[in-house]
Every structure is written in C-alpha cells, then in structure tokens.
C-alpha cells in the first residue's frame, strides 16, 4: 500500500508552502486559465498561493487516480452565475470529494471518499489580534459569551471562523449563509457542529481541527455520520 493511498474511512490533508513547488512544475500542471486568474493578484505571494493550490489539488488527486496531474478534470462551475470560480468538483465516477484553501504560509487540499468536504486555513498576522465587530457579526450569542472568557480571544475566534468556513465550503453555501446562523463548539473543546438551519442533521457532520503550524489555524468538515480519521501529509511526497 502506498503511503499516500486514500483509504475509505479517512480524509487526507495535503500541506504545501507557497514557495515549495518549482515554477516549472506549476506551469506544467496548472491550466492556462487558472494561471491567468492567479496572475490578476497584485502580490506575488498571492499568485503563488493560488498556483500552488491548483497544483496541489491536481497532483494529490492524480496520486489516487493514476492520471498525470495535468489530465485531472475539475469543474468549478459557480451555482449562482455559472462562471468557473465555484467549489472544485471531480467527475462523479471518481468517487473523491475535494476542497482547497490557503492563507499565510500554508496551502491545504482535502481529499476524502466519505462525503462532501470543506477545508479552511486562517492566518493571524498579529499575535492576539481580535476584531470585535467581526466577531459580533459572525458568532452566535453563546459563542460570543464563551469567547469573553478566553485568554486569547483572537486565536479562539480564528478557530471558530475556520470551523464555520469549512462547514460552509462542505455544503457549498460559502458566505451566502451568515456565519451567525451556525453554532459550533467553543474553541477549547473538541470541534463539533452544534446547530444550523440546514436539513442536514448535526450528527451527519464531522469536524476536525488540523495542524498547519504557528500563527495558523485550520479545520476540515465532512458531511458524513461515520467516524472521521484525518491524515496530514506534506507536498514533498508529491514532488
């Protein structure tokens, strides 16, 4: 069994740095359309994050399907406008759900066969930074009350944010659904969905915190009632 083989009961998280993949490898795998979209970013690091995410997604999938990374078919059709900037999906016959996120120095890709998946990475540029107004607009009353007792409300808020963002990516709602309508467990407790307005029962959702490294927080959500096993892997295995 290959070290990177995706098992039926797990969610793989692949990690990369924006500067980890040589430019020639990025150019060989990432389609021209996505290269052009990445080129619209003004900052080089933003372009590198976008390109690295596109490369990592295709290369991680190719490791499972046996294709060459540049042969992996992805559909990003937006459910609202029909443009190619929506959540990534593989052809139905592949049987793998995927998600991608990047922030700061980390790029993440999630792969699983368990159900629809969302991964989110957040970066805290300043230690202890906390946007009170943003918290009041995105947290429930219970979540906000729990945040008041935290020794580091900035870090606690970012943990709640990535949990909610991962959930919204898994359902495909994105920020079209207000985060305040979703309630998750407090930052100091095991991650779990507590309540939301969707028909999907809370026990049909699994949440897990990830290990992106210092000053970053990350979470993954999978729409499944089965136990969730997480395996985190480095992009060096794919180079």
List the helices and strands and how they pair.
Layout (H helix, E strand, L loop, with lengths): L9 E7 L6 H7 L2 H8 L4 H22 L9 E3 L6 E6 L7 E7 L2 E7 L4 E7 L8 H7 L2 H8 L4 H19 L11 E2 L8 E3 L10 E4 L6 E7 L6 E6 L5
Parallel strand pairs: 1-11
Antiparallel strand pairs: 1-5, 2-3, 4-5, 6-10, 7-8, 9-10
Helix pairs in contact: 2-3
Family: Belongs to the P-Pant transferase superfamily. Gsp/Sfp/HetI/AcpT family.
GO molecular function: holo-[acyl-carrier-protein] synthase activity; magnesium ion binding
GO cellular component, one term: cytosol
Describe what you observe in this structure:
The chain is globular and about 50 Å long. The longest helix is centred in the first third of the chain and has 22 residues, at 44-65. It has 239 residues and is of the alpha+beta class. It has one domain (10-238): Ribosomal Protein L22, Chain A, CATH 3.90.470. It is built from six helices and eleven strands. The mean pLDDT is 92. The strands form four sheets. The protein has a four-stranded mixed sheet with strand order 4-5-1-11, covered by helices on one side. A three-stranded antiparallel sheet has the order 6-10-9, covered by helices on one side. Residues 117-192 form the 4'-phosphopantetheinyl transferase domain. Its EC number is 2.7.8.-. One of its GO terms (cellular component) is cytosol.
């Amino acid at each position: 069994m290959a070290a990177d083989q995706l098992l039926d009961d797990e969610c793989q998280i692949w990690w990369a740095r924006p500067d980890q993949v040589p430019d020639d490898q990025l150019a060989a795998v990432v389609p021209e359309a996505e290269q052009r979209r990445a080129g619209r970013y003004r900052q080089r690091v933003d372009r590198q994050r976008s390109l690295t995410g596109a490369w990592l997604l295709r290369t991680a999938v190719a490791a499972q399907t046996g294709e060459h990374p540049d042969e992996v078919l992805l559909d990003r059709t937006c459910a609202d406008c029909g443009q190619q900037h929506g959540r990534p999906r593989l052809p139905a016959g592949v049987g793998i759900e995927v998600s991608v996120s990047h922030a700061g120095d980390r790029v993440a890709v999630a792969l699983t066969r368990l159900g629809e998946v969302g991964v989110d990475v957040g970066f805290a540029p300043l230690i202890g930074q906390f946007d009170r107004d943003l918290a009041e607009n995105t947290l429930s009353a219970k979540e906000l009350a729990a945040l008041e007792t935290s020794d580091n409300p900035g870090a606690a808020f970012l943990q709640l944010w990535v949990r909610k963002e991962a959930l919204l990516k898994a359902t495909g709602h994105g920020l079209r659904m207000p985060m305040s309508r979703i309630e998750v467990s407090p930052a100091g407790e095991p991650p779990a969905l507590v309540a939301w307005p969707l028909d999907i029962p809370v026990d049909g959702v699994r949440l897990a915190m990830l290990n992106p490294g210092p000053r970053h927080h990350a979470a993954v959500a999978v729409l499944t009632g089965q136990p969730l096993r997480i395996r985190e892997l480095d992009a060096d295995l794919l180079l």
